[in-house]
Amino acid sequence: MRKLTYFIATSVDGFIGDPDGDGNFFITHFLDPEYTQRMCAEYPETVPTHVREHLGLADAAPRHFDAVLMGRGTYDVGFKEGVTSPYGHLEQYVVSRSLTESPDPAVELIGGDVVARVRELKEREGLGIWLCGGADLAGQLVDEIDEFVVKTYPCFLGTGMPMSRAGFGVRPLELTKVETFDGGQIISTYARKDSTG
Description:
The chain is an alpha/beta fold. The protein has one domain: 3-Layer(aba) Sandwich (Dihydrofolate Reductase, subunit A), CATH 3.40.430.10.
């Protein structure tokens, strides 16, 4: 059974973007060669298709995920720049109640019961499913997330878009891995304690 992994960048105080959801400052302020090299080697499939060739990853095989699930706001970041298929090397799903037709044949829209659809996707053969963002979608799927890979960047924002809008609940996790980098980034991997995936 495939796992749903919330693979997300965050500030020390748990924000994944500014109040409008823009998280580009993580890339512009907090990437260094050691960290970038590690991310490209371990998670090459999370690099957008139009950037992969520039980083020497055009032919890099996916290691963890072969599908990506995005909320409309996350998808719109690239779409506003003319990128209609941001992860063309993966199965792409966009959850949206407002879009009625996909802007690209490589992108499948999910407009109905996202939990039911994710459960169907998890039953398929393959690698994992990357929950790319954002906070609303993570909130809707919090009970379906099997693993959290949290990339914490050395910054404190004070306010912004939270990691999730799931509402309060004590959801036990098991820390399975921690990596630290000289640039101050920390990658923490957690599994749900009740996960059977």
